[in-house]
Amino acid sequence: MIFVSVCLGALAEPAALRMATTTSVENSGLLAHLLPHFKRASGLEVKVIAVGTGRALKLGEDGEVDLLLVHSPEAEKEFLAQGFGTSRQEIMYNDFVLLGPAADPAKLRSTRTLPEVMARLAMGGSPFISRGDNSGTHHREKGLWAAARIEPKGDWYLEVGQGMGPALFMASEKQGYVLADRGTFLSLRARLELEIIFEGGPALLNVYSVILVNPVRHPGIRNEDAQKFMDWILSGEGQKRIGEFTVEGQQLFHPQSLK
Amino acid sequence: MSTWAGVTNEAFQLLVNGDTDTYRAMVVTLQVSGAATAAAALLGVPLGLVIGVSRFRGRSAVQIVLNTSLSVPTVVIGLLVYLALARRGPLGSLGLLFTPTAMVVGEVLLALPILVAFTVSAVSAVPREVRETAESLGAGWWQASLAVLDEARFGVLAAVVAAFGRVISEVGAALMLGGNIRGVTRTMTTAIATETSQGKFGLALALGLVLMLMAFGANLLFHYCVDAEARERPQRRL
Question: What is the pTM of this model?
Answer without folding.
Answer: 0.82
